[in-house]
Amino acid sequence: MNFVRSFRGWRKTISVESEIVSLVGSRILRSVHQVRTYAQGEAMEGFVARVPEQVDVKAIRAKLKLSQEGFARRFGFSLAAIRDWEQSRRQPEQAARVLLLVIDHAPDIVDEVLTSVMSYLTARPSSPSHRTRA
Questions:
Q1: pLDDT, tens digit, for every residue of 93-128?
Q2: Are 51 and 88 spatial neighbours (Cβ–Cβ below 8 Å)?
Q3: Is 7 part of any domain?
Q4: pTM for the full model?
Q5: Counting Cβ atoms within 10 Å, is residue 100 exposed (0-12), middle (13-18) or buried (19+)?
Q6: How many domains would you assign to the chain?
């Protein structure tokens, strides 16, 4: 493929492989499309998590045969939050809904992760800035 470039009366012919132009052109067009999509506030390409607006906390807890207190303690929620969610006084925030969905589908994995994190945190030596003076 040949391109003719003119500047102040001078003409220059540039020969370029069409595959390269096609590849570069498609990348530029894709980038322009992504910028326009982002600027318009639309969803970008790739994985987009879809978190439901409501989660049945009581059903998840009942499936595990736990009391409100036991569920709160096991998964790190406040007892007040569990009560509010179950009595529809408020809905869990998005991050809590994600965790609740994971608990619903894989409670043992959540237990394993939480146990592992707690083991790491308790085994880690405290930093000098967090030590108390005697």
A1: 999 999 999 999 999 999 999 988 888 888 877 655
A2: no
A3: no
A4: 0.58
A5: buried
A6: 2
> Among residues 94, 107, 19, which one has the least CA distance to residue 55?
94
Q: How far apart are CA 56 and CA 84, in angstroms?
A: 12
Distance CA 88, CA 99 (A): 18
Domain that holds residue 68: 57-123
SS (H, E, C) the chain: CEEEEEECCEEEEEECCHHHHHHHHHHHHHHHHHHHHHHCCCCCCCCCCCCCCCCCHHHHHHHCCCCHHHHHHHHCCCHHHHHHHHCCCCCCCHHHHHHHHHHHHCHHHHHHHHHHHHHHHHHCCCCHHHCCCC
Residue count of the chain: 134
Q: Are residues 32 and 77 in the same domain?
A: no
- The answer to whether residues 62 and 112 belong to one domain is yes
